[in-house]
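Weekly puzzle thread! Below is a chain. First person to post its structure in C-alpha cell form gets bragging rights.
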Amino acid sequence: MAATAAAAGTPSSSLLAPGRRRRSVAASSFRAAASRFRSPRCVLGSEQLRAVEEGKRMGGGEPRGAAWTPRAPAPEARFAALPREARDSRMKIFSGTANRPLSQEIAAYLGVDLGKILIKRFADGEIYVQLQESVRGCDVFLVQPTCSPVNENLMELFIMIDACRRASARSITVVIPYFGYARADRKAQGREAITAKLAANLLTEAGSDRVIVCDIHSTQALGYFDIPVDHIHGQPVILDYLASKTISKDLVVVSPDVGGVVRARAFAKKLSDAPLAIVDKRRQGHNMSEVMHLIGDVKGKVAIMVDDMIDTAGTITSAATLLKQEGAEAVYACSTHAVFSPPAIERLSGGIFEEVIVTNSILLPDNKCFPQLTVLSMANLVAETIWHVHRDGSVSSIFQ
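Winning reply:
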C-alpha cells in the first residue's frame, strides 16, 4: 500500500527542518496545543498500513503497526492496569464488518478480547447475526461505522443491536466512528427528508441505550437523539501528529467553506490562536462546488485545511487551488473521515497537497491509498471514551 509512513523526526516534505537547533514559533504552537490533551497518543497507519509486526499487546490483541512512535509511551491496557479483584468482566466489545481492524485496536488498548459474533449474508442478501457468547447483564459496546456500503452497514448495526437486546444485555452502547446520513440534517428545500433524524430514531427504536459518535457532520444532529450521545473529536489525534513535525513557515488554518468556520476556529485556537482564513464557495449541486474567493491572508504561509470529512474532494481541492493562487507555500489537508468517493483519489493525489492527513474511522482499501496519504489511528481515543462510559466517568475530561 502506498501511504506515508515516516518515522518520528523524519522529514516528509521540503518544509521540514529537523536539523534546526532553535524550533520555530509555529512548531512550538503545535506542541503546546497537543500537550494539553491527555489522550490519545496516535499511531500512524496501524492495520491499514500493514506495518511490520511488533508483537501482540496485552489482552490478545492483533499485531499493531509502528510506523510512527508516539512521543510518550502508550498507556497500559486498561484492564491489565487494574488489580485483579477490581476488574469488571461485564464490558463486552463486538465489531461489525465495516471496520474490524479499528475494533481490534480498541480491544487491545482496553486489554480485552473482541466478543465472538457470527455475521453472514444469505443468498438473497439478508443479514444474519448471532452472538456466540453470553451478554446477559453486560455493558455491550458495538463498534460499526456506517460508511460505504452505508445501507448494508446500517442495517447490520440494527440487527446487532436487536441480537444484544434479545440476549438480555444490561446496556447497549453503539460506537459509530463515522455516522452516515448525517449530512441531511435540515430541510434546505421543500419536500426533502431529514435522514439524520431518521437514522437517530431507528437506532433508538432498535434498542440502543447510548451512542458514541466522532466528529458528526453537524452538531445540531446530536439533538435528534432521544438517548444520551457522547460526541468525541478527532482533533487531538491530528494535533498530536502535527506536533511531531517541524514546519519552518508561518501557519494559517483554513476552512474550506463557510459552514466549517466554527471547526476551523476551534482548531486554530488550539494552535495558540493561529490566523484563520475562509474559502467562500457557492454549491451548484450535490457533490459539486465552485470556489468564489478567499477571506484572509495566506501568502507565503503554510495552509492547514481542516474539515470533518473528505467525500469527492471537490470542495477541498478547489479551495487548495485557490490557496496556491493566493500565494500559499504549501497546503496540508486534515480530515477525520476519509470517505473518498470517486473521483477523490485522482484529485487528492494530483500533487496540489503536501500531505493529506486522515484517521482510520473508515477502513481504507489498498486502491484508495496514495503517496501523500497519512492515516492516523483513533483507537486510543475511542477506547478511552468507552472506558469512561463504562466506569461512569466524564468523557469531556479526555479532552482537557
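Puzzle host: Confirmed. Bonus trivia for everyone else. The first helix runs from residue 25 to 34.
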